[in-house]
Amino acid sequence: MNKNIIFAIWIVSAIYCVYKLYKRSKSTSFDGVIGYTPGLEVIMVIILGPLLAVIDISLTWIRIYKEAEEARRRAENK
Asked: How would you classify residue 31: left for phi > 0, otherwise alpha for psi between -120 and 50, otherwise beta?
């Protein structure tokens, strides 16, 4: 049971990271380029998927919290 849960978390986080990689590659690809081949990036994303997902979610939460604190400070100054 525990192995199945760990494997499921690994798969979900790898899919999440591959999706983020795909979104980034679409925004950075140049005109005239035929396709995008991330190569080793996809392999590393699949291997390090859980770690990358935790880091991405943590940084996103920190950014949201920071923006909320700045909004609160601006509201207090008015």
From this structure: beta
